[in-house]
Amino acid sequence: MPSPPARLRAAVVGTGGIVTGRHLPALQEHADRVDLVAAVDIDQGRLDAFREAADAAGLTGVRGFTDPDAMLAEARPDLVLIGTPPSLHREQTVAALEAGAWVLCEKPLCLTLAEYDAIAAAERSSGAYASVVFQHRYGSGAVHARELIDSGELGAPLVAHCQTTWYRNTAYYEVPWRGRWDSEGGGPTMGHGIHQYDLLLHLLGDWTEIRAMGARLVHDVESEDVSTALVRFASGAVATVVNSVLSPDEVSRIRIDCAEATVELTHLYGHRNEDWVYTPRPGLDDEARVTRWRTPASDLPSSHSAQLGALLDAHQRGERPPGSGPDARRTVEFAAALYKAAFTGRPVFAGEIAPGDPFHEAMHGNHPDWSPQR
Burial level of 285, CB count in 10 A (0-12/13-18/19+)? Predict the structure, then answer.
């Protein structure tokens, strides 16, 4: 019998809460396929604590580095998982790609379309791929919903609502990089609601037009603390999108009204099958069909582990992983278009933000009311 394939060599860059709390358990769950060999953090105490946590999880022998370039040169990983503040994502992703490693980077993958272009160029020259963490796509409920919509089983999508109404207090924005264009890329449009509208795009496909508003209603920050948008999709479906950090009753919700049924997901930071509800149209009397809608083949929660598994499958097949390439760019473009529509007060169409457009270079588009120099 042929020997099993060698495990991929993985490294993490950044060892804060998201990496310790989400990526480390995912690596532990897939320890038969991937070997964590290195970790990078500029904070030696935090790095030591992560290595201890990895050792306790059975992931032993993790080498510690305080410099990512040194790690890439010495550890030579096949896969780099990035969980640093957003302003570092582009630089660290490009460096990993140029070293020949695949990348799984926390959202947002980058802060602008110009930064995305640099990542795409590094992909082309290296042959490696960069995926962004949008773990909500990978739960079985989301997989099932997309299959039903794509197959036409639910009828044509018509009307959708996408809601990320969360709450963040003043202390949250005392972290120096939050609420700033150059370090976070924006407010809840980039840092919070991006998970839900990425899932909406994943379910409904290409968007064609956005009209939007943005406001600073509570927090004294450079970026917005709430945004709203009206969206038209290539299919003809229309949607509303709300991104807020001002909402005491926190919820994440997607609702899609199709010709044959409404599908609705209500959760906060992650979902299971039970969080998805299918309501048939009045007069539809087909119990077997409705039961099929409500019964996915498996019950896999949305998680970093689910996405890591999909990436490892793609690596094994030598294919571009999900959540990378044009698929990743579409979500970045959506954010840029939402900001441009909100700040200019006019509709923005897919494809119009090209090099030379100020919203290609910065999400604030150098708008006098929103740029850091205001």
Answer: exposed
pLDDT attached to residue 190:
97
| Mean pLDDT along residues 23-52 | 98
**318 is a domain residue:** no
Residues 112 and 255 both lie in one domain: no
Read off the CATH number of the domain in which 255 is found.
3.30.360.10
d(C-alpha 266, C-alpha 35), whole Å: 35
Give residue-wise pLDDT tens across range 222-270: 999 999 999 999 999 999 999 999 999 999 999 999 999 999 999 999 9
Same domain, 119 and 200: no
pTM: 0.96
Q: Is the pLDDT of residue 92 over 80?
A: yes
Query: Going by C-beta distance under 8 Å and a sequence separation of 6 or more, which residues neighbour residue 55?
Result: 62
Q: Which long-range contacts (CB under 8 A, 24 or more apart) does 308-312 make?
A: 308/23, 308/26, 308/27, 308/29, 308/30, 308/34, 308/104, 309/30, 309/138, 310/138, 311/79, 311/102, 311/104, 311/131, 312/8, 312/30, 312/33, 312/34
Asked whether residue 239 is domain-assigned, the answer is: yes
343 falls within a domain:
yes
* 123 and 162, same domain (yes or no): no
The answer, yes or no, to whether the previous bond of 157 is cis (omega within 30 of 0) is no
Within this chain, do residues 269 and 336 fall inside the same structural domain, yes or no? yes
Total number of domains constituting the chain: 2
Compute the distance between CA of residue 71 and CA of residue 177 in angstroms, rounded to an integer.
25
Distance CA 350, CA 172 (A): 33
> By the 8 A CB rule, do 94 and 130 touch?
no
Tokens of 134: 């949008």
Residue 201, CA distances (Å) to 125, 138, 256, 272 in order: 28, 14, 12, 19
- Residue 321 located in a structural domain: no
Q: 215 Cβ partners below 8 Å, 6+ apart?
A: 224, 225, 226, 227
